[in-house]
Write a structure and sequence with these properties.
44% of the residues lie in helices and 16% in strands. It is of the alpha/beta class. It has a domain at 2-191 and 226-253 and 293-314: 3-Layer(aba) Sandwich (Rossmann fold). The strands form 3 sheets. It has a 7-stranded parallel sheet, sandwiched between helices. The chain has a 3-stranded mixed sheet with strand order 7-9-11. The chain has a two-stranded parallel sheet with strand order 8-12. The structure holds nicotinamide-adenine-dinucleotide and thymidine-5'-diphosphate. Nicotinamide-adenine-dinucleotide binds next to helix 1, helix 4, strand 5 and strand 7.
């Protein structure tokens, strides 16, 4: 028996695999296409661990997935694989439709074929957990109540629309075919192994390199932030005890404006690694052109997960951010590995910077 994880060389999937194998002996079959966002260096500590079976493959390759499911007698699939960056979805939405929509469909079909072939008891124990985002719910006004699981889907970016489509497919495969599914909708994650195209790692690395810290628009957009290890523990809990066909919101109760996040990061760096000239990293903040269709506010009501399954985040924003800053200061080899080639090209096109 094993669990099959897709997208396990990415940010959240990588953290999930590391955490899982730190506390379970059950093997992990890790299926990842290794796009620009996939990085095996994240999993370097598992190189000679027989419990980690890495397979480079596309979730859209149903035949390959079917073979792996049978070969390893998989009892649960956790689907992290996706194109995940909103800005990239604006400049090139095609890959988002391909992986997030078509890929999820093909994965569901491969899983359904396998699941249908299982004995009754194994079918009943089987789980397909789909990892999704709060962005499917759209954007909130300043005084609106946080998103509950009942909030209607109103995705605004190609990324969130493709994730919404995948959530609907997962829901339909449960209602129509009885596939035992669970869905989680989580807010913005941060923590170790976060690819530096996303706000927090991008700001940390730019700050240390003496580069501008780009804030889109007025910086008053609000996001809820959750430390990645807390997201991983929520997924483990939902996998273990979630009610079939249900969706669970996951959030950190940490609503912050982007400007607050960036200023806090600057303050933490001022303390941990002061600039040579003794001035604050805040001086590197620059307001730049806004993201088209930029959602103003996300906020997550995660009370269902707490009430039904007893899950709560362990980290506060302050404690999680401190750990994150420390991690980025101490893991220069990992950073060097991900900031080469294609990353430089992305930074140049997105921010018109000379690297
Ligand atoms: P990521 O971009 O860091 O990692 C995605 C991984 O999926 C990469 O390793 C990539 O190689 C792999 N992948 C992409 N296309 C693939 C395909 N066709 N077949 C197989 N593998 C493929 O993303 P992340 O931030 O780790 O997000 C993981 C999941 O969590 C996504 O589904 C995302 O929508 C969701 N999510 C992310 C956040 C966040 O803040 N990062 C918040 C809520 C939900
Ligand atoms: P991001 O990390 O891309 O996550 P998401 O778009 O999924 O929320 O962005 C977080 C917030 O930070 C979002 O409101 C956009 C903003 N942002 C900037 O202001 N500057 C940047 O350079 C980036 C990458 C994001």
């Amino acid at each position: 028996m094993a669990v099959l994880i897709t997208g396990g060389a990415g940010f959240i999937g990588g953290n999930f695999v590391l955490d899982w194998l730190a506390s379970h002996d059950e093997p992990v079959v890790n299926v990842d296409k290794l796009t620009y966002a996939g990085n095996l260096q994240t999993l370097a500590s598992l190189q000679s661990d027989p419990r980690h079976i890495f397979v480079q493959a596309d979730i859209g390759d149903g035949e390959r997935i079917g073979t792996l499911l049978r070969q390893y007698q998989v009892r649960a699939v956790i689907n992290f694989a996706a194109e995940s960056h909103v800005d990239r979805s604006i400049s090139g939405p095609g890959e988002f439709i391909q992986t997030n929509v078509v890929g999820t469909f093909r994965l569901l079909e491969a899983v359904r074929a396998y699941w249908s072939s299982l004995a009754e008891a194994e079918q009943a124990a089987f789980r397909f957990l789909h990892v999704s985002t709060d962005e499917v719910y759209g954007s909130l006004g300043a005084c609106d109540a946080a998103f509950t699981e009942q909030h209607r889907y109103e995705p605004n970016s190609p990324y969130s629309a493709s994730k919404a489509a995948s959530d609907h497919l997962v829901r339909a495969w449960h209602h129509t075919y009885g596939l035992p599914v669970l869905t989680t909708n989580c807010s913005n994650n941060y923590g170790p192994y976060h690819f530096p195209e996303k706000l927090i790692p991008l700001v940390l690395l730019n700050a240390l390199a003496g580069k501008p810290l780009p804030i889109y628009g007025d910086g008053q957009q609000v996001r809820d932030w959750l430390y990645v290890k807390d997201h991983c523990s929520a997924i483990r809990r939902v996998l273990e005890a979630g009610r079939l066909g249900e969706t669970y919101n996951v959030g950190g109760w940490n609503e912050k404006t982007n400007l607050e996040v960036v200023q806090t990061l600057c303050d933490l760096l001022d303390e941990a690694q002061p600039r040579a000239d003794g001035r604050s990293y805040r001086e590197q903040i620059r307001f730049v052109k806004d993201r088209p269709g930029h959602d103003r506010r996300y906020a997550i009501d995660a009370r269902k997960l707490e009430r039904e399954l007893g899950w709560k985040p362990q980290e506060t924003f302050e404690s999680g951010l401190k750990k994150t800053v420390k991690w980025y200061l101490h893991n220069t080899a990992w950073i060097e590995g991900v900031t080469s080639g294609s990353y430089r090209q992305w930074m140049q096109t997105q921010y018109q910077q000379d690297e």
